[in-house]
Amino acid sequence: MQPDVTQKPENAPDAGAPEVAEPVGQAVPAGPTDEPGARSTTPDGEPSARPSRRRRAWAWLQHYARRFSTTGLVLALLFFCYSLTPSLIPRAWYYQALITGMSMVGGYGIGAFVEWFALKVGLRIRWSPRVSRIAWWVLGAATIVLVPLFLVLGARWQHELRALFGMPEQAPANDVAVVFVAVLIAIGVLQLGRALRRVAQWVSLLVDNIMPKPIARFLSGVIVAVVVVLLFNGVIWAGALHMLNNVYASANEQIDPKLAPPTSPDRSGSPESGSSWESLGAEGRRFVALGPTQAELTEFAAGGDVIDPADVQEPIRVYAGLDPEGDLDATAQRVVDELDRTNAWDRSVLVVATTTGTGWVDPGMSSSLELMHGGDTAIASMQYSYLPSWISFVGDRSTPPNAGKALYEAVYEAWSKQPEDSRPRLMAFGISLGSFGAQGAFSGLQDMTTRTDGAMFVGTPNFTPNWTDFTTHRDAGSLEYSPVYEEGAQVRWGTEVSSAANIWSVPGTWETPRVVYVQHASDGVTWWSPTTLWSEPDWMREPRGPDVLDAVEWRPVVTFWQLTGDLFVAAASDIPAGHGHVYYLEYADGWSALNAPDGWDEDDTLRLKEQMLTKQPAASSSTG
């Protein structure tokens, strides 16, 4: 609680530090001086009423310091220390600075509110000036000791986390930059909050004359909060989305000169296709132009005895770019038209893949499927947005499931009309925001197993309804990061580092059709949630996953900002396979569990993983 040595105005911006008496100016010889306690002089040597520049700066600094809440500063220091503890993903100094700054202002806000509330209900401790000075010296000494101590501990924890991931050591952290930038961020956010409070006070003055003061103050706060929310949602956020949409739409139209339009009629964007090369968008063009070549497919088939190299085919990849009017059903119909044109109904496997925000299809998924089946496959996908997934995480959670539903239902309707004894096995797939979108086509597990021949969902965000339902109702004793649902009868999770093979570890029969979830204990995309601001998730109460440090613990406010940082770097180019949001090796296990060709065994799965390692992407776009 704040020491009380002076009576502060009731409407002071912050309950805070004690008043500090200003030094009294003393007589000095005539002439200019910059001493803090000296008077300024005129050109004639006479004393001036205007204080010196340094004195004014010192007085302003004292005045500014008095506005801080003592309790708030204590919690800000505590949250600073907590912010340097490890989370799921190794982080660079600038992410650390952002996490630390936001954590500090969160701690300060909590402390200031507690202090304000205590004063309002009459809990006021009156300390003597001497005790107050001692308290401030203790806080200063604690800051001097704890800040460098936790910077050192934070560097050690980051080193341990990188070692756990198998990542090389990082250059020494820029600790000075972390502290400086974090303080700037905290002060900037705090000043914004103070500015809003001044607006609320001004509104309170306007309504003071027509209603009692307590009601006026409460009403003014509500009015300002509502206006800010409406302004943000209706003007600022809408304007930001419009600007970002234009930026990413421009990037979507740019054609990579390294990519050539496909010549095979089995690809969208080819001369025979009803979808032009230009209409596919940046990610769609990459999807149809790349993938294993006929020679690579043949060579892989020849390395085993599952697929006859003479039977290798050109894989079908169909894709539709974003409809100019945003009509998801029209876009999905263009995909079905491409399936009809390529006669995809004669292939062994047809995968309906819901993309991430920008239209990205994971090349690890498509390549591993095509290598496994010797190209006897078809993959259907479409674009539904220009915006990266992280923006949709925040501002648009309706379009991805709507798009997933439109695409799957259009393909399912056409597939259902094909002869049952010759049509391909129909699979659903999605990664990251694409997993959230793909599951929008299904009301639950029964719907999945009724209308698919199998489904694989990878790195699923935990706001996905089906995932949340299965995880919440997991069998007693199973862990949140690796749950067991209904004894693994039809849905199972793969969570091993660099392998999803533990999806077979649950005893009992795994019935078909099967549903596979693949996720990592260290994937910030899966574990990020606003509820971590105030609530500890199960996975932090339970034994940690294989690539999560035991030192990872839940702290209110701080953990949310740490996971927010993890969300952005989970698929960074330096994150090794099997950690974070990097999954391209696990597809070999997932597809082998769902729909491996006859004769496929564990040695073939290992051979496929070795092949995928040679095609390791330079960077992942799964959060794009």
Automatic annotation (TrEMBL):
The keyword Acetylation does not apply. Pfam families: Abhydrolase_9, Abhydrolase_9_N. The chain crosses the membrane at residues 64-85, 97-122, 134-157, 177-197, 218-240. The keyword 4Fe-4S does not apply. Residues 265-278 have a biased composition (Low complexity). Residues 84-292 form the Alpha/beta-hydrolase N-terminal domain. Residues 316-608 form the Alpha/beta-hydrolase catalytic domain. Coiled coil: none annotated. Keywords: Membrane, Transmembrane, Transmembrane helix. Residues 1-51, 257-278 are annotated as: Disordered. This is Alpha/beta-hydrolase family protein. It comes from Oerskovia enterophila.
